[in-house]
Write a structure and sequence with these properties.
By secondary structure, this protein is an all-alpha fold. The chain is 88% helix and 0% strand.
Amino acid sequence: MDINIITVFILAIFVGIEIITKVPPTLHTPLMSGSNAISGIAIVGAIISTKLGGELGTFLGLASVIFATINVVGGFMVTDRMLKMFKKK
């Protein structure tokens, strides 16, 4: 495997952890709503990747579709819960 790809992946993990831990709790839900759009794009890319790269690409694309779909559904559930808090009873 290419060492550059592994290096970028490891750096992305550290940067992601640092960014997420620095976000105040009041911003987590709005950021989750915004990340749904990004996950939607990731789903499209994952679907495309299932047709590329042979058997390994198909497996990794399927795993990507599953994880991105879980992320989108979870994001919508959190957003829906937040919006229900603001509705008058």
